[in-house]
């Protein structure tokens, strides 16, 4: 999860995602807390380059969606999908998929919102 809003209590994974941690490994990066977030994402993805069968899915939203897709393109062999929530621009890429377009206006739905969790889980189930 690459969270452009970075809102969370006690720097924990939002409660809506905690029940899924028994079957999904979730890494949450809050962009406001990580000014060098692009290099951090690149480093995390690079760590998996020697994995036999990596299954990495990246979730992000709003204003950084296009930047995340551009960054992930350098790791296409590692990343199965990029799941987007309320991207500000269309991202025509084979591994990018919009999982939620909320009607909340210009502010993207928070990644901890139950509708986001539902959309991401549904997309992951289709990919499996």
Report on the structure:
This protein has 128 residues and is an alpha/beta fold. The protein has one domain. The protein has helices at residues 15-18, 37-46, 65-72, 114-127, and strands at residues 2-3, 29-30, 56-61, 79-85, 96-100. The strands form 2 sheets. Strands 3-4-5 form a 3-stranded parallel beta sheet. The chain has a two-stranded parallel sheet with strand order 1-2. α1 links the parallel β1 (2-3) and β2 (29-30). The longest helix has 14 residues, at 114-127. It is globular. The model has no long low-confidence stretch (mean pLDDT 87).
Compact description:
The chain has helices at residues 15-18, 37-46, 65-72, 114-127; strands at residues 2-3, 29-30, 56-61, 79-85, 96-100. It is of the alpha/beta class. The chain has one domain (2-127).
Spell out the key features of this protein.
128 residues, alpha/beta, 3-stranded parallel beta sheet, two-stranded parallel sheet, 4 helices
How many whole angstroms does the radius of gyration measure?
14 Å
Ends apart, CA distance between termini = 19 Å
What's the helical proportion of residues? 25-40%
Number of structural domains: 1
Number of helices: 4
Secondary structure category: alpha/beta
Task: Pick out the low-confidence regions.
Answer: none
Number of strands: 5
User: Which geometry do the CA atoms define?
Assistant: globular
Query: How much is the average pLDDT?
Result: 87
Largest beta sheet: what is the strand line-up? 3-4-5
Biggest sheet statistics: 3 strands, parallel
Strand content: 15-25%
Secondary-structure element series: EHEHEHEEH
């Amino acid at each position: 999860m690459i969270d452009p809003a970075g809102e969370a209590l006690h720097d924990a994974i939002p409660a809506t995602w905690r029940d899924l941690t028994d079957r999904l490994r979730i890494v949450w990066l809050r962009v406001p807390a990580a000014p060098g977030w692009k290099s951090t994402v690149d480093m995390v993805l690079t760590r998996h380059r020697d994995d036999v069968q990596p299954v990495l899915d990246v979730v992000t939203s709003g204003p950084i969606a296009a930047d995340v897709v551009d960054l992930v393109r350098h790791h296409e062999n590692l990343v199965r999908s990029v799941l987007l929530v309320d991207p500000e621009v269309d991202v025509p890429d084979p591994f990018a998929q919009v999982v939620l377009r909320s009607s909340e206006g210009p502010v993207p739905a928070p990644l901890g919102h139950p509708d986001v969790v539902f959309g991401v889980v549904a997309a992951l189930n289709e990919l499996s």
